[in-house]
UniProtKB/TrEMBL annotation:
<feature type="region of interest" description="Disordered">
    <location>
        <begin position="1"/>
        <end position="20"/>
    </location>
</feature>
<dbReference type="InterPro" id="IPR040908">
    <property type="entry name" value="PnpCD_PnpD_N"/>
</dbReference>
<protein>
    <submittedName>
        <fullName>Hydroxyquinol 1,2-dioxygenase</fullName>
    </submittedName>
</protein>
<dbReference type="InterPro" id="IPR011051">
    <property type="entry name" value="RmlC_Cupin_sf"/>
</dbReference>
<feature type="compositionally biased region" description="Basic and acidic residues">
    <location>
        <begin position="1"/>
        <end position="11"/>
    </location>
</feature>
<dbReference type="Pfam" id="PF18191">
    <property type="entry name" value="PnpCD_PnpD_N"/>
</dbReference>
<feature type="domain" description="Hydroquinone 1,2-dioxygenase large subunit N-terminal">
    <location>
        <begin position="31"/>
        <end position="170"/>
    </location>
</feature>
<keyword id="KW-0223">Dioxygenase</keyword>
<keyword id="KW-0560">Oxidoreductase</keyword>
<dbReference type="GO" id="GO:0051213">
    <property type="term" value="F:dioxygenase activity"/>
</dbReference>
Length: 342
């Protein structure tokens, strides 16, 4: 089960006072785009920029970067912890509720008391962001694709690309390829081998199953599966054992967000390389630069934010512990922010 489905159902609080105050505003005659309001936040776009305002402040993000970040936030169900669209704007997942913020993890904004945040019910904010993506994404642009695999997001309103933004994230219940579970990717299903993975072998493993275990035993070629990914920076839940989630993904260009962890997160670099910028979660101050090459394993601590860069499309296996108890355990000190202390 996907994190957003399991955790939100387990943690939703029916007595919560989190806001549902969201609104789709009229179309701008000049650009053709709608504006959107979530409490005190108003989000508008023009030909080049997403423009965000709140009581006492404004912020501008290039619209391509904003759409790529918003696409991940929606697809991941607000993900684990903090999704920083950039150094100012983003969301915090409380699993059933979500905080929309400006400057909450930025020293300059906090010190000047210009930070602002509001808490919403997840379903209310999710609905608004889905409407925003549908309206702001033009027909030539795919927010999930690498820049060389899609058109441009610029200009006035020009159609839509619902097929791209309505993709369902792969979220296997047990393992990809098992009967009744998430299917394998094939040419026939519309998943050709990506241009940068043309050399990846497409061998299929032989599996001999004892009678009676046909629905329990399976195997698939993970490299071949990832070579057919039509999206970037979008971990797919490919196997599940209890709270242990294996989430492989293909990466090209820039991770559109700075992910602020609320738990430790393990990365196994399967091919090529990714450069990671690691910053302090609360302040955004740089802490490390990590170059991960094929075969490298690293753990991102629970008190950082990270953003990756990959020129050659690469394969990455992300291991997540999806337990909903971990954020509280880290907050009260019963779980560490690092897996091992040297």
């Amino acid at each position: 089960m996907a994190m957003s489905e399991a955790s939100e159902r387990e943690n939703a609080n029916p007595a919560s006072t989190a806001s549902t105050d969201t609104e789709v505003l009229p179309i701008c005659n000049e650009t053709g785009y709608r504006a959107f309001r979530a409490g005190g936040f108003v989000l508008r776009r023009d030909e080049y920029f997403a423009r965000i305002s709140w009581p006492g402040g404004t912020h501008v993000i290039p619209v391509d970067a904003f759409l790529r970040a918003a696409m991940r936030d929606v697809s991941w169900g607000f993900f684990y912890g903090v999704v920083n669209f950039d150094g100012v704007f983003g969301t915090i997942n409380h699993y059933g509720e979500v905080t929309l913020f400006a400057g909450a993890f930025n020293d300059a904004y906090r010190n000047a008391r210009r930070d602002y945040q509001q808490r919403f019910r997840s379903d209310a904010l999710m609905g608004l962001l889905k409407d925003l993506l549908g309206d702001w994404t033009n027909q030539d642009f795919d927010p999930f694709a690498a820049p060389m695999e899609t058109g441009q997001p610029w200009g006035r309103k020009n159609g839509n690309n619902d097929a791209a933004i309505d993709r369902r994230r792969v979220a296997a219940r047990r393992m990809v390829g098992l009967p009744g579970d998430a299917p394998l990717r094939t040419d026939e299903a519309g998943f050709p081998v990506n241009r940068q993975f043309a050399d990846v072998a497409q061998d299929v493993p032989d599996v001999e199953v004892e009678p009676g275990f046909e629905n329990e035993v399976s195997a698939f070629n993970l490299f071949a599966y990832l070579s057919r990914s039509d999206v970037t920076w979008n971990p797919s839940v490919c196997s599940v054992v209890g709270d242990s989630l294996f989430c492989p993904t293909s990466e090209e260009f820039v991770l559109p967000i700075e992910h602020g962890n609320d738990r430790c997160e393990w990365f196994l670099q399967l091919s090529d390389e990714i450069s990671w910028d690691v910053k302090d979660k609360e302040t955004g101050k740089p802490r490390a630069r990590v170059l991960a090459r094929a075969g490298d394993i690293c753990c991102m601590p629970a008190d950082i934010r990270h953003q990756g860069y990959s020129t050659k499309r690469s394969m990455l296996l992300v291991w997540e512990n999806g337990s909903p108890r971990i954020p509280e355990m880290i907050a009260n000190g019963t779980a560490p922010v690092v897996p091992v202390t040297f």
